[in-house]
Each structure stands twice: as C-alpha cells, then as structure tokens.
Amino acid sequence: MGLNEKPLSTLHEKASYDLADFAVPTGREEAWRFTPLSRLKGLHNGKAEVTGQALTQVTTPAGVTAEWVGRGDPRIGQAYVPADRVSAQAYSAFEKALVVTVPKEATPDEPIRVEVRGGGLDGATYGHVVVKVGPLAEAVVIIEHQGSAVYADNVEFVVGDGATLKVVSLQDWEDDAVHVSHHHAQLAKDATFRSFVATLGGDLVRLAPSVSYTAPGGDADLSGLYFVDAGQHLEHRLLVDHSQPNCKSNVDYRGALQGERAHAVWIGDVIIRVEAEGTDTYELNRNLILTDGARADSVPNLEILTGEVAGAGHASASGRLDDEHIFYLQARGIPYDQARRLVIKGFLGQLIEKIQVDEIRERVLGAVEAELAR
C-alpha cells in the first residue's frame, strides 16, 4: 500500500504502510530536527537488528478479549497509517500484534493492563497494539514500559459510537533505553477519549500521540507530564486532526527539566479542516527549567481552514521558578528546599490529579518526589 492521498497537515505531509516511501532522515527535516538521530541506535535507518529483547504481556478483566494476530488481520492498520520512517519500520517489522477488544456496552470494573519489559540493548524490538472499544462501552487501559530496550511501536485506539476510553501510558524505562512510539486514537460519533502520558525514564524517548475523528461529537483530552534529567532527551509530538464538525480537543502537557543537557521537545499540531465547522480546541505546553544547562523546545501549531469554529487557541511558556512564590513560602517559615519542591509539585500536581487510577497516580507522584530529591 502506497502513499496516503490525503495529506495529514503541513507538518505531516504523507502517510504510508510502505517503508520505502520514507527516506532515511538526516536531521534537517522539520519532523526530525530536534531528535538526536545518532542516539536512535539504528531505528531510523534500518540498521537495528531485530532480536526480540522486549516482552509484552497483557492482563484483561472479564469480558474483554486479547489476541495475538498476524499482520494480515484486517483490524491491523484500520485506524492508523504510519506517518514517518520509524513508525513504518515498526509496522513492517513486528512479528505478532496484540488486539484487545471491549464489547459493545461493556464496562469492565478493572483496567486493561499492557506491560512492556525490556531485556537489554542488544538489537531492537518492534510492537503493535490495537485497542477496540465497542459502541457505548467504557474502559481504562494502562500501558507501562520498564527495563532496558531499543523499542519502536504503534498503538491504535479505535473508540466506537458513544464509547469512552481512558488511557494511561507510563514510560518508566531504565536510563539507557530508546523508545519511539506512535499512539493514534480514532473517535467515532460522540466518542470520548482521555489520555495521560507520563514520561520519566529512558535515554531517548520520542512519543507521538495523535487523534482523528470519523463523525461529529468526538471529544479528546490529551494530558502529559515529563521530568527530564541530565543527558535525557524526551520528545512529545502531538497531532489532532479535526476533519468532522462539532468535535472537541484539549491538550495540556507540562515538563520539568534539571541537569546538564537535559532536553525536552514538545510539538503540538492541531489542524481544523474546511469541513470541521464548530470545532472547539485548545493546546497548552508549559516547561519549568530548574537548573542551568537544560533546554526546552516548545512549538505549538494551529492550522485553521474554516472560519466557523467555536474556539481555537494555543499557548506555550518555558521559564524558571517564580522567585515570588518561593519568597512567599519562605516568609511563612518554610525552608528554601522545601518551598522549591512545593512549587514544583504544585505545577505538576494539577495534571497528576487527572490520573484516575489510584495506583498509577501514587506511583507518578512518588517518581516526581524521587526526581526532586536528586
């Protein structure tokens, strides 16, 4: 299957299942200019040998099915077409795909858990996951990454009419891991999608969440948190493609950075097509730079092709701790170090409270505490 005829946007100009349709990136391309290609360990140029060093396990509640299928299964690639070379490489190289199905009107009382555990850096592993949520169903999915690995994957979320899907994705890799991933949600009529991404570990993590709509009434909320330490490169590239009328989207990503060569990249691209009248969208990215030597690149993009929108906006801010906030707390007898931690936790905590799984919320809070104690 060749190039998709419909351009995604000016920043996502083509989509294809065929690896040959994508040139090897050089770093001069807009989509790759922030990514240190030399640290991808061959994921971008085909030199990464496939050795199967990452293991994926799934746990499903009663009534939810999980199957391992071949790439010929018609559910694979139904919602998402790879939009860059690494994504196409992952699509062409996975051995088996995981398909999780939530039946119509089902409301599982436990989350669906997908755990990816790396077993080393000797070669690469590729994965593919599809989560299909039937009409009027409600489900929670937790995707967790741990260990050391060179890993690239695609994840498709297909949310049916009137259904609700909540996803928590936790990137808690060891310090040497490399992970490049695309998460795509396709929303049917009146579907609701809630995503929370927490990226804490890894040497280089590049995660690209995206959303598309197939009918009016879709509602997407994408939240994310990242804490970048010395030498880490954590990159999030979002795309919300409004191609249906009367749909909503909200994006809120926040990061904290500390240490020499700590680098965060956030790219937010929202496109409102001519036919997407009545769209209501907003995207926000904020970065807190805690030490010298850290760098945050933040680029919001909003492409509006119709004048009939309910609301559209974006904002981005990167800066240091507010001295007035610190002084206010110190004036009330709180030591500087404790005051500093309180301000940072307040900045990130507003997002962490959106995690509706108690266990994961407490784990992310604990990870932030550990980062601040360094």
Descriptive terms for the model:
374 residues, mainly beta, nine-stranded mixed sheet, 4 helices, 13% helix, disordered N terminus, Fe-S_cluster_assembly_SufBD
Please describe what this structure looks like.
Belongs to the iron-sulfur cluster assembly SufBD family. InterPro entries: Fe-S_cluster_assembly_SufBD (IPR055346), SUF_FeS_clus_asmbl_SufBD_core (IPR000825), SUF_FeS_clus_asmbl_SufBD_sf (IPR037284), SUF_FeS_clus_asmbl_SufD (IPR011542). Residues 123-347 form the SUF system FeS cluster assembly SufBD core domain. Pfam families: SUFBD_core. This is Fe-S cluster assembly protein SufD. This protein is mainly beta and 374 residues long. The chain has two domains: 19-320, no CATH class; 324-374, no CATH class. 13% of the residues lie in helices and 43% in strands. The chain contains four helices and 18 strands. The chain has helices at 85-93, 323-330, 336-352, 358-372; strands at 54-59, 65-69, 97-102, 112-119, 125-133, 138-148, 150-159, 164-171, 178-187, 192-199, 204-213, 219-228, 233-242, 248-257, 263-272, 280-289, 295-304, 311-319. A nine-stranded mixed sheet has the order 1-4-6-8-10-12-14-16-18, with helices on one face. Helix 2 packs across helix 3 (336-352) and helix 3 (336-352) runs antiparallel to helix 4. The longest helix has 17 residues, at 336-352. The chain starts with 53 loop residues before the first strand and ends with a helix. Mean pLDDT is 91; it is low at 1-11.
